[in-house]
């Protein structure tokens, strides 16, 4: 297993590669990224045997901003006459897995291989369970990823549930709720799935909590908060969805989100205002640094150039501001599947007595 394969949003290969290169250098592991614009996949090749696995173990997946999913493994050329036999042989070189994930790149070329992966699924699953290279009902075992680049070339790799995304290709299957006022409702739901462990939902997204939604209109994010039975202060000069207001859980404040301050510390501040990332990061620093809220989810809209540097700078500014304010916090950032030219940042104050 010589390399890591990373899935990312098409067009963000450079960012995913730069990030991986930097993290590998921090670990003192030699390797190089192979990234082709628009491919939605990045290879990170480690020439030294064992280094790719070591790198994957050393880096928490949650630290990766631009990678949606990853796996450690190698590429295999297959003959269209018989793809199954060489794949099974390659699987024998790696660990036993709990399940099979068939993947492609998130591109039009990738989507055009849906018929092939559909055709291969049943025979592959049969052979893999028969040979016992896949043993269902053993969740502690890794997932086997077969990522088809073409009908002749496939990446055979593995990832571990506690250090990878919980979905094939890192793409969550979320549906827009029927009565949500906008599609962007999914961004907040996906952010929760990504940043908040499922076991914490009942304590951190609890009925009766108070949340402030800056740039709330028409109310997609507010809908998610109301759905968790929270009380929401929705700040926006634009109109809010009528039905959402009828829930009785929403107070609509027509004001500038950058100037608004709650009268007491609230549980959540979420913000989807389209603005410069530097303004958004200053807003996070203010809300957590001045103890206006305990947790934040905010979007950083990215400029066209220097996107990786811009994100790293924003995170650094937040860390510096919170250090200065004497507030300890967990800071995380991810380009979610629902994020286009943007990333989502989560900050949670963890200072005692906050
Ligand atoms: C992308 S939309 C938000 C969509 C919303 N999250 C949803 O799910 O329906 C951005 C909103 O930010 C609001 N906005 C822009 N600048 C603002 C400001 N300074 N203060 C408050 N709201 C602002 C706009 O009026 C717009 O409704």
From TrEMBL:
SUPFAM superfamilies xref list: S-adenosyl-L-methionine-dependent methyltransferases
Enzyme Commission number, as recorded: 2.1.1.186
Keywords: Cytoplasm, Methyltransferase, rRNA processing, S-adenosyl-L-methionine, Transferase
Active site: 301
Record-annotated Ribosomal RNA methyltransferase FtsJ domain positions: 182-274
InterPro entries cross-referenced by the UniProt entry: RlmM_FDX (IPR040739), RlmM_THUMP-like (IPR048646), RNA_MeTrfase_FtsJ_dom (IPR002877), rRNA_MeTrfase_M (IPR011224), SAM-dependent_MTases_sf (IPR029063)
Top class in the EC scheme: transferase
Compartments in which it is found: Cytoplasm
Similarity-based family: Belongs to the class I-like SAM-binding methyltransferase superfamily. RNA methyltransferase RlmE family. RlmM subfamily.
Function, as annotated: Catalyzes the 2'-O-methylation at nucleotide C2498 in 23S rRNA.
Subunit structure, as described in the record: Monomer.
Name under which the protein is recorded: Ribosomal RNA large subunit methyltransferase M
Biological source species: Halopseudomonas sabulinigri
């Amino acid at each position: 297993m010589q390399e890591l394969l990373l899935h990312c949003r098409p067009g963000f290969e450079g960012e995913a590669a730069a990030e991986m290169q930097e993290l590998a250098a921090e670990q003192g592991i030699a390797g190089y990224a192979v990234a082709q614009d628009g491919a939605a996949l990045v290879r990170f090749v480690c020439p030294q045997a064992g280094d790719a696995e070591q790198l994957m173990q050393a880096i928490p997946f949650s630290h990766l901003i631009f990678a949606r999913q990853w796996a450690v493994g190698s590429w295999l050329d297959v003959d269209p006459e018989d793809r199954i036999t060489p794949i099974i042989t390659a699987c024998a070189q790696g660990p036993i897995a709990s399940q099979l994930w068939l993947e492609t790149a998130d591109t039009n070329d990738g989507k055009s291989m849906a018929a092939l992966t559909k055709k291969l699924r049943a025979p592959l699953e049969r052979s893999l369970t028969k040979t016992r290279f896949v043993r269902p009902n053993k969740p502690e075992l890794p997932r086997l990823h077969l990522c088809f680049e073409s009908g002749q070339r496939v990446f055979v790799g593995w990832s571990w549930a506690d250090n990878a995304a919980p979905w094939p290709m890192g793409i969550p299957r979320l549906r827009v709720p029927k009565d949500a006022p906008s599609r962007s409702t999914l961004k907040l739901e996906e952010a929760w799935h990504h940043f908040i462990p499922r076991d914490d939902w009942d304590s951190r997204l609890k009925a009766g909590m108070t949340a402030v939604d800056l740039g709330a209109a028409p109310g997609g994010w507010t809908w998610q908060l109301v759905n968790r039975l929270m009380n929401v202060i929705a700040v926006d000069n634009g109109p809010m969805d009528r039905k959402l207001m009828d829930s009785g859980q929403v107070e609509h404040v027509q004001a500038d989100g950058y100037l608004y301050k709650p009268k007491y510390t609230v549980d959540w501040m979420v913000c989807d205002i389209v603005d410069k990332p530097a303004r958004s990061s200053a807003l996070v620093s203010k809300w957590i640094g001045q103890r206006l809220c305990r947790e934040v989810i905010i979007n950083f809209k990215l400029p066209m150039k220097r996107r990786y540097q811009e994100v790293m700078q924003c995170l650094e500014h937040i860390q510096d501001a919170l250090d200065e304010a004497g507030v300890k916090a967990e800071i995380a950032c991810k380009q979610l599947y629902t994020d286009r030219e943007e990333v989502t940042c989560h900050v949670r104050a963890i200072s005692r007595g906050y």
